[in-house]
Amino acid sequence: MARNTKTGSAASRRRRDGGFTLVELLIVISLISILAAMGLVQYRNSVTATREATLKTNLFRMRDAIDQYYADKGKYPSALDSLVSDGYLRRIPEDPFTKSADTWTTVPAEPDPNNPASEPGVYDVKSGAQGTALDGSSYSDWD
């Protein structure tokens, strides 16, 4: 009789040592899922942050080119394409959110009181992208 008890406990020990329980597997799968979700959110935020940095750089460079144009010629460019044709920019940069160079919104300059018939020109440029940034501001309102 004593042998049967030892054999029974040895057999049950082998079954217990042979694998994982369903609860253990569910806990591991849950933890992996949570970590993967957190990683995905971090990845998306880093992609958005990179696009925002690119947008800020593009806006800065175009605004700088507009200011240089005004300093050189005494008037604002009639369109963004004038910055390219006159050599202030190599090309109009792409908006990283709309993936197009045609979606920039231009802000016209105040009319010249000495010459009201003249074309006002482009005073500023803003993004045509819809949506809000990671800091809660709208892309189209960035200065």
Low-confidence stretches: none
Read across the widest sheet, the strand sequence of neighbours is 1-2
Residues in helix, %: 40-55%
Main β sheet profile: 2 strands, antiparallel
What structural class do the secondary elements suggest?
mainly alpha
Q: Could you state the order of secondary-structure elements as H and E?
A: HHHEE
What is the total domain count? 1
Radius of gyration: 32 Å
- Which range does the strand content fall in? 5-15%
- General shape: rod-shaped
Query: Average pLDDT value?
Result: 87
Number of E strands: 2
How many distinct helices?
Answer: 3
The end-to-end span amounts to: 88 Å
Outline the secondary-structure elements.
Layout: H1 2-17, H2 22-73, H3 80-85, E1 105-108, E2 122-126
What does this structure look like?
- The structure is a single chain.
- The chain is mainly α.
- The protein has one domain (22-141).
- The protein has three helices and two strands.
- It has helices at residues 2-17, 22-73, 80-85; strands at 105-108, 122-126.
- It has a two-stranded antiparallel ribbon with strand order 1-2.
- The chain is rod-shaped.
Task: Give short descriptive properties of this protein.
143 residues, 52% helix
Q: Brief overview, please?
A:
By secondary structure, this protein is mainly alpha-helical. It is built from 3 helices and 2 strands; from the N terminus they run αααββ.
